[in-house]
């Protein structure tokens, strides 16, 4: 009998959108997480299309890179070049017939060409705030409340992204969600003394190397400092996101939740094999917030 899970599903608006390969196991994991409480928990979450919405009112929302690609502050030539790159490489990123190993060389090429394009055109640090303010980037419904509740209970949140750290930090600020419990691991822009973008610094994080090694390079002691927090809620929208949990010391109850935003039929099976819970075209954090109600003992 999965009583906690049934209770959550009853209170969730779209139970048919929830796919769970092994409900008994998930029930057990939620039970253990709740028994251990917030002091044993951490969250590791992807940013683009996970914390943020995939679409709203029939229109696709922005991603970190998308903000740059669509901003009125960027030239038409830059936008066209970036869009061409997206149209060429994104279908490869989500192609269910290719292996990750086959995809990686294309993804590296994408980042190389994308970063090269970005530094070819004038881009200034001072534009970041304005770009984010006028963008179509939106958090999923309930994401602000989720981050607030986690901060209140002092549960650490790692936002791990193959996007652009400078932009995602600005987005977190825009939604008043850059709390003290939050660490960002992502790609960092490098500006010269005049504030002009000259490249990216630090090791490249792409969608298929979001793993322990990348975290160690960016936040060397992160998981060591959290060694007493073996319970993890992991959120992602890409198969590469499940590796984000690799560095966790002494993992306990680890629940991996995947948002399946697009190409649903083709990718459902692989998502169900990789994530414990799959949410189909859900633009909210409602399901996660219902789990947290149990785990954080919220009213
Ligand atoms: P993430 O959601 O796993 O952090 O991955 C970042 C996303 O950014 C990934 O889906 C690819 C996308 N992307 C762009 O949209 N434009 C770009 O120029 C590059 C390099 C990546
Ligand atoms: Mg993503």
From TrEMBL:
- Please give the Pfam families that the UniProt record associates with this protein: UMPH-1
Name the catalysed reactions: a ribonucleoside 5'-phosphate + H2O = a ribonucleoside + phosphate
Instruction: Spell out the molecular function terms from Gene Ontology.
Output: 5'-nucleotidase activity; magnesium ion binding; nucleotide binding
InterPro entries on file: Pyrimidine_nucleotidase_eu (IPR006434)
Report the sequence similarity comment from the record: Belongs to the pyrimidine 5'-nucleotidase family.
Stored PANTHER family: 5'-NUCLEOTIDASE, 7-METHYLGUANOSINE PHOSPHATE-SPECIFIC 5'-NUCLEOTIDASE
UniProt-recorded name of the protein = 5'-nucleotidase
Organism, by scientific name, is Allacma fusca
Give the taxonomic lineage as stored in the record.
Answer: Eukaryota, Metazoa, Ecdysozoa, Arthropoda, Hexapoda
